[in-house]
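The passage that follows is intended for readers who have already worked through the single-chain material. We present the inputs for a multi-component assembly, then the predicted structure in tokenized form, and finally a short commentary. You are encouraged to pause after the input and sketch how you expect the pieces to fit together before reading on.
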Amino acid sequence: MTDARELFRWMVVARTLGTTLCTLNVRWFPVEGEEAVHVGSFVDLRPDDAAAPHYRDPFVVYLMRGAELWRLIAQVLGKSAGYNKGRSVAFNGPFHLGVVPWVAGDLGTTIGTATGAALAFKQQRSDRVCVCSFGDGTANRGDFHENINLAAIWRLPIVYVCQNNGWAISQRADSYLPAPVAARAAGYGIPGRTVDGQDVEAVRAVVAEAIERARSGDGPTLIDAVTYRRQGHWAGHIVSDADRAGVVERPDPIDVLGARLLERGLATQAEMRQIHEHAAAEIVAAVERARAAAEVGDAELGLDDVFA
Amino acid sequence: MSIDAPVKAPVGSRRLTHMEAVVEGIALEMRRDTRVFLIGQDIGPFGGSMQGARGLFEEFGPERVLEAPISESAMVGSAIGAALFGSRPIVEVSFGEFLPAAMNQLINQAPNLHYMTGGAARVPVVIRTRVGDGPYGGHPQDYVSWFAHVPGLKVVVPATPPDAKGLMVAAIRDDNPVLFVEPMSLSHARRAEVPDGDYVVPLGSASLARPGRDVTLVVWGSMLPLAMQAAATVSSEGAEVEIIDLRSLAPWDSRMVIDSVRRTRRLVIAHETWVTGSFGAEVAATVAGVARLELLTPIQRVGAAPIPVPSGPLRARALPTSAQIVAAVRATLEGSRP
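Having made your guess, compare it with the prediction:
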């Protein structure tokens, strides 16, 4: 089992990589402030489970499943070394690592596909499960309702995590969420949990319980992980102080866990600094390698690759 | 009947309706391959809309015949996801009018997955639906042409019982998403000999339903019987119509159509759906692009009146008729009668 220090490292990797990707591509979606939800939701999945992370820079999820850092960066640069031959949106993950593909341009579509992964696992009588996360804006798509209802009826082995950062691009949650997301679970007859999305250990604990429930055939759980978007919707999107007026800032998830590591004597300040430095160095090297990779060409265009 | 299908009943064939043939194709594949299962509404003890799942629940039980809530997007989306992760689902959207409720999954997701994962993902899913006019009068709007527009989705519309079985078997065995469309006017129409056992009609292959030297008539689905009737009328006037039943709209057998038009030098296209933007336009454009100089007369197209297909007795006035096909054929012969 991944220890707390490793959780810290993954969040640092997510933060450092995200910051770098935002400088490489102004259209990248900054993960800053929300790392604990990505890491905590997916860290305890088995390699043969399915992962359908929210699109907001899910690279740390792919890395935890074994993706290569430089290839993910190459993907953001549109290089042929990316996992999907430069064909899909850059945040689409490597399918061979059990990542539910993201090929639609809209939101909520993957909730259906992820639910289908759980359906396949149930039909195959396996104990594999799927974790599916999405934003609080996406929670208003019909696919959210239809699929959670379907999964509840069929008792599918899936965990739904709402990565609730309080924003849908420029709109604040009070313009689209009349009640807490977890309260909706009652309408489907499944457990609903609310968890502090800045506390990676808390997210992990509540998701682990839901995974266990799913694995043992008791069906889905809906988790509302309340988090905080520190940047705009995309890298180039500036949210002014006026826009943020009244929004309560939530603590930085890396600081929260860092303080605990110190308190528990699991890491020193110097060691944590080293984790930051090591992540930064790895990313610099990976960016260099990705930059040097070949551009896409006719082979990637794949005119004969539409059908299997 | 298609001439590809055996003219003489082979050893081991039975006379089945279109609907019975579809169900037989599904049952055979479910027996052969435990990865295959069915999702839909009313497919349990009720036996499916228009008896479209008759006997399946009794044979395979609730674990492989899954009744779903009225949630087309989740039904299709979860079927796609299950296909990605090793199952081979058939999802039944009771009527074609309900396809738009699952459009996001049908258009933005299923067709894109293989290509956009760099070829890593496969989506062996069949989306089965019923369209057009039919014995019960409901849900007549035919939107099938929309789906042939999108790269990555296969679209088939069988017009005979043997094709209904053979195309269903092929669709289930295909590693790509296939929209399987059943014309409701044919569902419980005349029986035909359907070979027993393993019987496959390749996706993308048209059928030469009637050979003829003078005019090529391209149809699919419910128009086949009307086309045969029209051909008989025109034949009594001394002209022979060659009827091509496309069977598949995506991919489609343009070669058979072009080869035929090269001989007949005249083309009529007839379909139950509206003319504007229908797949018939693609057939016309393809032929015009390849054989423009060879055509003796302008291409004629027959389809529904440009209004939402109405209910009740009004409907007959909106949908294409055999007489309209005859008139279109005559128009191509005018001034150039052989």
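Commentary: Chain B touches chain A through 46 residues (CB under 8 Å). The domain at 207-333 of chain B is CATH 3.40.50.920 (Rossmann fold). How closely did your sketch match?
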